[in-house]
Amino acid sequence: MYELTSIQPDATGLRIGIAVSRYHREITTSMRNAAVDAFVRSGGDTKNLTVVAAAGTFELTAICRALALMKTETGEPAHDAIVALGCVITGQTTHDTYIAHSVIQGLTAITVQTGVPIAFGVLTCQNLEQARARSVDALAAGGVNKGAEAMMAAIETARTLKTLDAGVKEQR
What we know:
The protein has one domain (16-171): 3-Layer(aba) Sandwich (Rossmann fold). It has five helices and four strands. Helices cover 46% and strands 17% of the residues. By secondary structure, it is α/β, with parallel strands linked by helices. Strands 2-1-3-4 form a four-stranded parallel beta sheet, sandwiched between helices. The radius of gyration is 16 Å and the shape is globular.
């Protein structure tokens, strides 16, 4: 039996893809920067990051799928995990609800189909102030930038999967 509760966020040697929406650029740029910083502070090397821009949050699904399907020269998955970063703000219609649900379902399906975990760093806020409080203004408000939080989840999940994979191999 393997105990997985003490896994520390260690990005050493991990390869992470980041898909970031350009829509609400101030918010998503802040989240991207925080995600990269969290990766480096956790021992990751920026040469092991692949950062790809998406036109909007809806398009994150296609970008994340492409990142999940990428392979190394030896045929291994090119990324141990992916971080999806976007921002959906409620408007005058229900458009935001459809976008958020579609992205959640799409990213979940990609993870299940490929085995590459995707950390959900998509803000779903009622207004711009809420989005800023979770990104641009997070540290000043005593909080955590959600881009960094998503990266930490990606690192932890990648490490957990590697531990589980090693356990399965040992039992064979």
